[in-house]
Design a protein that fits this description.
The complex is a heterodimer of chains A (about 90) and B (about 260).
Chain A: E1 2-6, H1 15-28, E2 34-37, E3 43-47, H2 54-66, E4 71-77, E5 80-83
Antiparallel strand pairs in A: 1-3, 1-4, 2-3, 4-5
Chain B: E1 2-8, E2 12-17, E3 22-31, E4 42-45, E5 53-54, E6 60-73, E7 77-85, E8 88-97, E9 102-110, E10 117-124, E11 129-144, E12 150-162, E13 169-170, E14 177-182, E15 194-199, E16 204-209, E17 218-219, E18 230-236, E19 242-243, E20 246-263
Parallel strand pairs in B: 13-19
Antiparallel strand pairs in B: 1-20, 2-5, 2-20, 3-11, 4-10, 6-9, 6-11, 7-8, 7-10, 9-18, 12-16, 12-20, 14-15, 14-17
Classes of the chains: A alpha+beta (about 90), B mainly beta (about 260).
């Protein structure tokens, strides 16, 4: 399961900033395998492996509702792709 | 009296030939640094000879630069990467790896041109992670044979899985190829105007199809619809590289259709 969110910030990160972000992400999302971030788009992609976890998706949806600045961009599960367009 | 008549072009056949991937296996693995290196381990400059050969001109297409960096971790590690295009940061991230596992970081640079410098920097949070393999190939996506033309009996006759590397193993399944179809009323996207036809075999024919202005006719998954200017990553107990592949078009046939207005009588 791969989830991409729009952080609304297009900022390049240094090595040190990456470590800080990584620590925060992994503390809050223990299931996280890897993550990537694009300074070009501000998109943060979270990868959880090839598992279907509706509870996890519900939690992320809950975070999205609470955090106004976070927008879901795309969700991938196996070959299925869902995109939220502007 | 006026009327219209279709005017068919001669049969158009387009062959796509993909260049053999460039691969390098280091004789002696390098130890990854524990902070970001000033000089990325993997660097390729796009040359004209790297581009796939399309044997007749097409109106537009985009090139995708695929770059791989791979190796092994001795103790469990968090690996970091940064993709750079012409010195600018394009994507960055981290990957968790297990003790004595192989890792593969596969970067997909969207819309590259000849002369672009594509780089992948790798580093680790522990001192004994190793790097020993890199590879590079160019893919094609968003192919538009002719703008604003009706493509009649568009026949995507054959497809080919790329890259084919001499080392490691590909993941399965190979990513489908996609056809962008304008189809009003199909509620796939929120605006309900389009959807993507996708499959993993060749031999499909569309009676009538018009290229989308943005997406073209045929496009790929990795590097375009997914992982555009981003990476795919894998870890594996024994296989390195363990890499993702795209199905790419290798032979296309069609006629294009022009509508002529006739004045009769």
């Amino acid at each position: 399961m791969i989830l991409t969110v729009d952080t609304g910030r297009k900022q390049d990160l240094t090595d040190v900033q990456m470590r800080t972000l990584s620590t925060k992400l992994r503390t809050r999302i223990p299931q996280l395998i890897n993550w990537s971030y694009s300074p070009l788009t501000g998109f943060l992609t979270l990868e959880f492996g090839d598992t279907e976890d509706n509870n996890l998706f519900s939690r992320i949806e809950d975070w999205r509702v609470k955090a106004d600045s976070i927008k879901l961009v795309r969700f991938e599960l196996l070959e299925m792709v869902r995109r939220w367009l502007e | 009296m006026a009327g219209v008549t279709p005017d068919f072009s001669n049969l158009k056949t387009i062959n796509f030939t993909y260049q053999t991937p460039q691969e390098t296996l280091l004789g002696t693995p390098e130890t990854l640094p524990m902070s970001e290196p000033a000089t990325p381990q993997v660097s390729y400059t796009v040359a004209s000879g790297d581009l796939p050969i399309i044997d007749i001109p097409v109106e537009s297409k985009k090139w995708i630069g695929m770059v791989i960096g791979a190796g092994r971790v001795v103790t469990g590690a968090i690996l970091s990467w940064r993709m750079k295009k012409n010195g600018y940061s394009v994507n960055l991230g981290q990957l968790s790896t297990t003790t004595n596992y192989r890792y593969t970081i596969q970067a997909w640079f969207y819309d590259v041109t000849v002369g672009d410098v594509l780089e992948l920097a790798l580093w680790s949070n522990v001192a004994d992670s190793l790097y020993d393999y890199k590879a590079y190939q160019i893919h094609v996506t968003r192919i538009t044979p002719y703008y604003l033309k009706v493509h009649y009996r568009f026949f995507l006759q054959s497809i080919i899985a790329q890259p084919v590397l001499t080392l490691g193993t590909p993941t399965t399944p190979t990513a489908n190829w996609y056809i962008y179809v304008i189809h009003r009323g199909y509620n796939f996207t929120p605006n309900g105007t389009s959807y993507f036809f996708r499959t993993n075999i060749g031999g499909w024919i569309w009676s009538i199809i018009v290229p989308d202005e943005v997406m073209g006719l045929v496009y790929t998954r990795h590097g375009d619809i997914s992982n555009q200017n981003s990476v795919t990553t894998t870890t594996h107990a024994t296989s390195r590289p363990r890499y993702y592949r795209n199905y790419l078009p290798s032979l296309v046939r069609f006629r294009y259709l022009t509508i002529k207005e006739l004045i009769i009588g």
